[in-house]
């Protein structure tokens, strides 16, 4: 009877985790709530109690394992699998077309299309998943080496501890999948924090970007829990580059895997379309929930991206400040 009871508990734990993970996915990726917050909290409480009674069933990717651990003595430096590169600046249409001409000379037989996104003003970070489970979180650092902030990133609800399983995402579960993105604090949350600090007579925070970066670099994860930070993804890496044919595909797959991506991002067929996109966001960007500092424009085809290579610390095909 004991074995049967344990089997029933194990099955209930798996079911609870799946429902809680589905709730997280719908809430953070689709901006949709499939149950009340009270109901979700009730399921989490039940899961905590069951795991406390049967600790042998606890896994590192369980929703209960987002709790902040003990303070770290220091951060460990970790090399990136591939450099997190800088971006070249382009300020007007003339410079944009000159950039396109330089690329076309390098790949004269290719039809160039582009992928554009809003550039978020936050802290760049890479999340490494091994067989679908979060293994490491690394800050950008100097682009080649960053700091291991896994313990802090695990506390963010917008970071899946296990990649979301769908028929489409299944090929990306096995092996190593790396997701890169920006940690941002929404403007309204930043304003609320400063309002509270003002009432308490404390110094005000300077801006959301510095606060996000400073929070993630706290040695005590408990300080991270109290700050409303969000992870928004913008890139997907696999050991086999052919797994991700275009940047447009990468964004679609990031959503499948359980990450929030900017809905404003889109594929564009020409630099004329790029400029139109840029001008359309000159004013509209102020209505976004996070601060921005330009646009990122990439050649959409990832094979061409790889062929173009890198000049200095920046890829030939990525631009900001259009």
Provide the descriptors you would attach to this structure in a database record.
322 residues; alpha+beta; Helix Hairpins; D-amino Acid Aminotransferase, Chain A, domain 1; 2 domains; 4-stranded antiparallel β-sheet; 3-stranded antiparallel β-sheet; globular
Description:
- A hairpin with a 2-residue loop joins strand 11 (310-311) and strand 12.
- It is built from ten helices and 13 strands.
- By secondary structure, it is an alpha+beta fold.
- The chain starts with a helix and ends with a strand.
- Helices cover 37% and strands 20% of the residues.
- Strands 5-4-7-8 form a four-stranded antiparallel β-sheet. It has a three-stranded antiparallel β-sheet with strand order 9-3-10.
- It has helices at 2-28, 37-53, 93-106, 150-153, 187-199, 208-216, 221-225, 247-256, 271-284, 302-308; strands at residues 77-79, 88-89, 114-120, 123-130, 133-139, 145-147, 176-184, 230-238, 266-268, 292-299, 310-311, 314-315, 319-320.
- The protein has two domains: 2-65, Helix Hairpins (Orthogonal Bundle), CATH 1.10.287; 86-320, 2-Layer Sandwich (D-amino Acid Aminotransferase, Chain A, domain 1).
- The protein is globular.
- The model has no long low-confidence stretch (mean pLDDT 90).
The largest pleated sheet is described as: 4 strands, antiparallel
Q: Find the count of extended strands (DSSP E, 2+ residues).
A: 13
Computed CA radius of gyration, to the nearest angstrom: 21 Å
Strand numbers in spatial order across the main sheet? 5-4-7-8
Kindly report the CATH topology of the largest domain.
D-amino Acid Aminotransferase, Chain A, domain 1
Helix content range of the residues, please?
A: 25-40%
- Poorly predicted segments: none
Class computed from helices, strands and strand pairing: alpha+beta
**From the 3D coordinates, which CATH architecture of the largest domain would you assign?**
2-Layer Sandwich
User: What's the CATH C level of the largest domain?
Assistant: Alpha Beta
